[in-house]
Specification:
375 residues; alpha/beta; Aspartate Aminotransferase, domain 1; Aspartate Aminotransferase, domain 2
Length: 375
């Protein structure tokens, strides 16, 4: 059998209750990142139809450096740069591709990347194939970042320092201390890279994220995914013009990838416009978040002040079993296990979106109370 090692690995995952499988979308949405409920929005559907009617192609036909550079890509990037107050924005096919390209190409040999221990797997992928030194520090601990940089300098480190965080962490729902990290970056002449994936559209003025007040600074780069609150797909790297130009020239994940669909670029631009004026959608979401905090807190869910409420179960198998029972009752809640989260913190990751009503939030809380009491 040619795949013996792979079959044995899958067997180990099964025994450890960590084997993954694709499952359909069933039940009321408490697991997606479609926070504003735009993914099925008739407004975005109309934008897609309008783009098709004016001749926007569905496929790009090649990389951006060949024939794949469409006016819709450039229009989206120009609009995003204006919206976020940065010099340039560069559109990628996904947040994973953008992060992997950023971390594998921007930090140079002799540099140091200091990153939060809970930063996304896509950043780890870029760091794995990059040339810079890297060190993980305690989650959301500014002093740990400062100490790591000072220790590296004392040991002879002379290159550029890069500080990498998420503004809102996807599994815990807590926020990075961005202002403190900005002060540390300024003190060490460092660059601050901020992944705004889960904050875009939900936080900040006009949904511009938790890092909106830092945009436009010469030492700040942000990543804003389009596949979560914006309801489409792709990601925008926002920052100084030299960063975008360098990625076009040295970012292998950009250079050697077929360009994203021009149609999706057009719809993403429409989604950014909606986000900018979607105060009612955000108000509806925050009403749901506040209600969810009230009804889930007594169950032991972590109140995070965000749309992500983790309910820690502990071991993998009980978390999977609880999720299965919730799903059988018509609520799409997923269990998250290591290595996505740390050992012993398997959880239900409950996300609050505009796809579930206040009544349905209450119903889910009642069901979880009942299931945990009978466990």
């Amino acid at each position: 059998m040619p795949f013996t090692a792979q079959a044995e690995d899958l067997g180990r995952l099964t025994r450890d209750a960590r084997r993954r499988a694709l499952s359909p979308q069933v039940g009321i949405d408490f697991s997606s990142n479609d926070y504003l409920g735009l993914a099925r929005s008739p407004l975005l559907a109309a934008a897609a139809r309008g783009a098709l009617d004016r001749g926007v192609p569905t496929g790009s036909g090649g990389s951006r450096l060949l024939r794949g550079n469409d006016p819709e890509h450039e229009a989206l990037e120009a609009y995003a740069a204006t919206l976020y107050g940065c010099e340039r924005a560069l559109f990628f096919s996904s947040g994973f591709a953008a992060n992997a390209t950023l971390f594998s190409s921007l930090p140079q040999r002799g540099d140091l990347v200091v990153h939060d221990e809970l930063i996304h797997a896509s950043a780890h992928e870029g760091l794995r194939i990059g040339r810079a030194e890297r060190v993980a520090v305690a989650h959301n601990n500014p002093d740990a970042f400062d100490t790591a940089i000072r220790r590296w300098r004392a040991g002879g480190g002379a290159g550029r320092v890069w500080i990498a965080v998420e503004s809102l962490y996807s599994m815990d729902g807590d926020r990075a201390p961005l202002d403190a990290l900005m002060t540390i970056a300024a003190g060490h002449d460092a660059v601050l890279l901020i992944d705004e994936a889960h904050a875009t559209g939900v936080f900040g003025p006009d949904g511009r994220g938790l890092a909106a007040h830092l945009e436009g600074r010469a030492n700040v780069i942000t990543l804003r995914t389009c596949g979560k609150a914006l309801g489409v797909e792709g990601a925008l790297v926002c920052g100084p013009a030299v960063v975008a130009d360098f990625l076009v020239n040295r970012g292998r994940g950009f250079i050697f990838s077929t360009a994203p669909s021009p149609l999706m670029a057009a719809v993403a631009r429409a989604a950014l416009g909606l986000m900018h004026s979607a105060a009612q959608l955000r108000e509806a979401l925050w009403s749901r978040i506040r209600h969810a905090e009230t009804v889930f807190a007594p169950l032991g869910a972590t109140v995070t002040g965000s749309q992500i409420l983790p309910l820690i179960v502990g071991d993998d198998a009980p978390a999977m079993a609880l999720a299965a029972r919730v799903q059988a009752a018509g609520f799409d809640v997923r269990a998250i296990r290591p290595p996505t989260v740390t050992q012993g913190t398997a959880r239900l990751r409950i996300t609050i979106t505009n796809n579930a009503s206040l009544e349905q939030i209450t119903q889910l809380a009642g069901l979880l109370a009942e299931l945990r009491q009978s466990a």
